[in-house]
Amino acid sequence: MGFADKLKALFRRSTLDDEAYEDLADLLVEGDIGAAFAYELVESLKKKCRQEKISDMDGARRALKSLLLPYARSKQLELNEGKLNIVMLLGVNGVGKTTSCAKLAYWASKQLHSNKVILAAGDTFRAAAVDQLKIHGQRLGIRVVAQGQGADAAAVLWDSIEAANADGAHLLVVDTAGRMHTRQDLIKELEKMNRIVAQKAPEACYSKILVLDGTTGQNGMRQAEIFNTAVSLDGVILSKYDSTAKGGMILSLAKEYNLATMFLGTGEGYDDFEVFSPSKFLDELLGI
Ligand code: GDP
Predict the structure, then answer these.
(1) DSSP-derived 3-state class of residue 131
(2) First and final CA of the chain: distance in angstroms?
(3) pLDDT of 269 over the 90 cut
């Protein structure tokens, strides 16, 4: 039985006794909510149910939703119609960065009612990333600015901003290299990127989004910690949400690092990309 089904089964029990509370805490840990946070939540739920004289399971489930709501933080990607928007996706190898670049470019071109979108193949480190992005660009009819594998990512960014300025583009989505950085390397690389944006596109609306793989649990939390302390992140894309159905990591990200979720990746197709909705997410999580 998957996590969501187990949670639903728990709320089908007849009473919320101590055993049910304990099982709930275990389940929340299993759902990628950190252990300390899970126990804290269960204690808050007990207190709330006692104070509000909630004894039925449905009431308890709704009470839990209200306790989780502050941690289901969402944030809209800021897209300014009158300016060039630059969105840089960060994250380690394999999390779904390149795929998310294509999905985001496709989604935003619909939002902006504009095909003046450019993809920048800034992951010059992973062997197949440049070609992969070019294929996405061909399929979507979106221009891709690239140099060869091993090229300087900063030079690709430079070229892509020049192309965006020349085309009067509305959006530039930048893929980046995903090697596991040390904090110092990451800061240096990002500072270089920031300087190029400041120099070439000082008026641009510039966002940095971390892509995390929803199936990696605590590993994802560690990545969030490294990137978040090195870079001021605007939000998170949680990819592969279709393969996990857990997603408790979203709540931990908000609690631990004050990070908001912007999008969920829900499959391998271009349309498998959703704006994160806290209430819908919690209803799915709790089986409401
Ligand atoms: P990168 O190394 O971070 O650029 O990762 P890729 O974009 O190459 O993605 C790694 C793998 O994850 C690929 O096989 C993608 O098709 C797959 N992938 C990416 N996003 C999703 C998603 O939301 N759902 C599923 N099921 N697979 C995904």
Answers:
(1) helix
(2) 18
(3) yes
Output the CA angle 67-62-13, nearest 5 degrees.
Answer: 115
Q: In the predicted model, what is the mean pLDDT of residues 21-44?
A: 92
Query: pLDDT per residue over 163-192, tens digit each?
Result: 999 999 999 999 999 876 677 888 888 889
**Higher pLDDT pick, 162 / 150:** 162
**99, 123, 130, 275, best to mutate for ligand 1 pocket (most atoms within 8 Å of CB):** 99
Calpha distance 73→11 (Å, rounded):
24
The position carrying tokens 């930048």 is 174
Sign of the CA dihedral running 61, 34, 264, 233: positive
The pocket around ligand 1, CB under 6 angstroms, is made up of: 91, 93-99, 126, 129, 178, 239-240, 242-243, 265-268, 272
Mean pLDDT across the chain: 92
Distance 49 CA to ligand 1 centre (A): 41
CA atoms of 61 and 80, how far apart (whole Å): 39
Atom of ligand 1 nearest to the CA of 241: 23
Count of Cβ atoms closer than 10 Å to residue 198 Cβ: 11
Residue 74 has pLDDT above 80, yes or no: yes
* Average pLDDT score over residue span 202-220: 93
Which of 69, 1, 31 shows the shortest CA–CA distance to 245? 31
